[in-house]
Amino acid sequence: MRFLFAIVALVLAGVMIVLGIAQRTVFLEPATSSLSATIAADAPYAVIDSSALTEHPNAQTVTLSGADTVFAAYGRTADVKAWLAGNAYVSIHSAEGNTPGLASDTVAADAEAPTGTTPAAAVTVTNPAGSDLWLEEFTGTKELTATVNLPAGISMIVASDGTNPAPSTVSITWPVDNSTPWAGPLIMGGAVLALIGLILYLWALIHLRRSHGPRRNLPKGPRMPRLPRAPRPKSIKASEITGRRSIGRSMIAVVPMFLVSGLVLTGCSSEFWPGAGATDAATVSPTPDASGAAVVIKDVPPAAVTVPQLERIMTKIAAVAADGDKNLSADILATRFTGPAFDQRLANYKVRAIAPDFPALAALPAGPLTLSLPQQSATWPRVVMTVVQNKDTPDVAPTVVVLRQESARASYLVDYAVQLEPSAKIPDLAPATIGAPIIAPDSKLMLLPPDQVAAAYADILSTGEASPSFALFEATGDSFRTQIDANKADKKAKLPTTASIEFGAKASTGPTLALATNDSGSIVAVSLEETETVKPVDAAATVSPGEGAVASKALSGLTATAKGFKNTYADQLLFHVPAAGSSDKIVLLGFAQGLISSTELP
């Protein structure tokens, strides 16, 4: 019976081990799942819709081929379609019904472009590469393979260069959980059962050996006559005993079994055990805010950009600024600057072209970004504010950059670039993952409507405490106002008796951009235009820009004039405007000033 139990245990052990190994070999499911689609031969663009990318869970490996240049980028589905507004494209999406797979359809050019997009007839940008809308982009030659992990709501645009046909073949591969959680228990259980069977087998052999030995305490029978003494048998060595020799052979046979089991078990990874298989790589958690709490907000427009996206945009802008500063090129500068920021930098180029020793404006740093506040918007134009600290000069005040994107195919342009006041305290702002709503220029919910801030502050610069708006603005810590007053006093003191000078200030034509703060107020960017007009006091007198007025001489080309001259300065200003009814005052957060023109009076 002992042999029977041993044999049964060993047979079951073998079956369990074989089944466990078979699960990882002959019965193992594929490690990936793939679907493919084709793009029409003449289509310059294609969109891999979010439904196609999320057809299966886990990360997506997208392979594109069939063009000399292969380009792909992903972004919000709405942004991708907005970029394509006015152009026909092939849409690759999940097949309808219960049949898994991908379907491709041609989407005709929109009859009417969405808000903020450019009609097809006016589109000049055809290559999607480098667009500020993309969260990430990829480029390859002949073939491109990219592994991404995109959640619902994100789509991928595919093209060559926007003119030539897009890649013709699209393949998407997802990793599949092919773990075999019972392989480990079967192999381990089989090994344990084999050990038990071995023990039973050894026990049965030992018992059999003992059962063939001499028997004692036999019942007494009738006394038999004494027989002649038989010759003593030859002694037998212990190694020649049949029972022991069998045990040794059994051990020799069992050792390989243990070796094989050990080798099998050393290959048991987490995929062999229940509850320890591969995790779902496609699981996307809500984005945490600065405090680490999950942010889940419904019915709110998305933030215009993500922080990594904004970092890439600022890197591009900083490179353009450095190139423009080096070559004194207005054309280069215009690709990333506009409005007051462009005017101030362009004037510096004009002066340096005539006076090479004139100092350049401070370089625009690329990062790191210490604060990001994108507008909540799914349409255009879009506004983004960020604070950039130059890592090479941490003792220099950070720069506040206000960007604006006019349409889906336009680049973000710098409207304002100002340095923070030393004592400036930026109010609490929404996390960058949420963004802030734009405040209408004429909003009555502010202490002062944003479009009136520039004029009110200009009046203070002109009339001081006599201005009706003087009490609305915080004077303490306003170094710009102190600087302006000091410059006026200095110029009056140095003015010859044969000349007169007049100062003026007014709101400029730069856009008024305002984003909401957490205290129901807003951060407002505005521009001013300051002027100083110098005239001779009699017909025989002449006036000149004065010693050291390099910029004025360079821009006007004058050394002396009997008519007089007018210098115009552009001011970029950033304010915190409290909510209506607040007891707080409007605070200047940062500023930048520069001479932009100097002309002779008519």
Automatic annotation (TrEMBL):
**For the DUF8094 domain, which residue ranges apply?**
304-596
Superkingdom in the source lineage: Bacteria
**Record field: transmembrane:** 182-206, 247-265
Q: What is this protein called?
A: DUF8094 domain-containing protein
Which Pfam families does this entry report, sorted A to Z? DUF8094
Please provide the record's keywords in A-Z order: Membrane, Transmembrane, Transmembrane helix
Q: Which InterPro entries match?
A: DUF8094
Disordered: region residues: 214-235
